[in-house]
Design a protein that fits this description.
seven-stranded mixed beta sheet, alpha/beta, 19% strand, 250 residues, two-stranded antiparallel ribbon, 9 strands
Length: 250
């Protein structure tokens, strides 16, 4: 068998009905290339290996799990990438879909990686700690709305699919989980300089409880700062608002 490694944030899915729901959600959109992140003991993997017409790969950093998966599912031969998803290169040429029961300790970083791959990732379905899933899917004006909400919402349509009980895992985590779906929307806000946009959003949320004129006063003219938008807090601005602000930076 295999051992659980807390250092890797491992909680293995044991409720097969959840794996089936994720696999069914995947099938709602067509794809020919699929990357699974963090297969663990293969609970979800077993429903993905033989999808017809799909080039399947999975990424797993834990060599013990890789050995177990290859023994248990021989069809995975030459389909496992032994690496960190955060450090790997794009696994396919062209468009692909990403799915996974993401390790909680790197789940937000995985979303940043998906955004980095936004020109290639058509769809992502991922299981997150519930509070992280809520933050990603939050809308402007909500207390959970933050950096991830803005950045993911700039390039993807976000759906909160369903919640998952602690008892669906071994060992049971101390928090509930939730599955969300990101569907590529292209670049609807015409963001040409992502690094600049990322900087603006992070700077704005750096003092999220204060009016925007506080974190941003050094980057706009005195005349610009008279605009009522600077009396708002970061969580009150939409993606469109941030794009408009970016164009006005001195």
């Amino acid at each position: 068998m295999y051992t659980l490694k807390k250092s890797l944030g491992q909680h293995f899915l044991i409720d097969d009905s959840i794996s089936v729901r994720i696999a069914e959600a995947l099938k709602e959109r067509s794809f020919t290339q699929l990357l699974e992140v963090g297969p663990g003991g293969g609970a979800l993997t077993q429903h993905l290996i033989h999808l017809p017409g799909v080039d399947f790969k999975t990424v797993e950093i834990d060599e013990e799990k890789v050995e177990y998966l290859l023994k248990t599912y021989p069809a995975l031969n030459n389909k496992i990438i032994t690496a960190s998803m955060l450090e790997m290169n794009r696994p396919f040429e062209g468009q692909f879909t990403v799915v996974g029961n993401f390790p909680y300790n790197i789940s937000t970083q995985i979303v940043f990686k998906i955004i980095e791959w936004r020109n290639e990732v058509d769809t992502m379905i991922g299981m997150f700690q519930k509070e992280v899933a809520i933050r990603i899917a939050a809308k402007p004006g909500n207390k959970d709305y933050g950096i991830l909400s803005v950045l993911a919402g700039a390039f993807f349509n976000i759906e909160y699919l369903f919640e998952v009980s602690e008892n669906a895992f071994n060992p049971p985590p101390k928090v509930k989980s939730a599955v969300i779906r990101l569907v590529n929307a292209g670049n609807p806000f015409q963001i040409e300089n992502y690094a600049r946009f990322l900087w603006l959003v992070k700077t704005s949320f750096g003092q999220r409880r204060k009016q925007l004129k506080n974190p941003l006063k050094s980057y706009f003219s005195s005349a610009d700062l008279q605009d009522p938008i600077f009396t708002k807090r970061a969580e009150q601005l939409s993606v469109e608002d941030y794009v408009a602000l970016m164009k006005r930076i001195k």
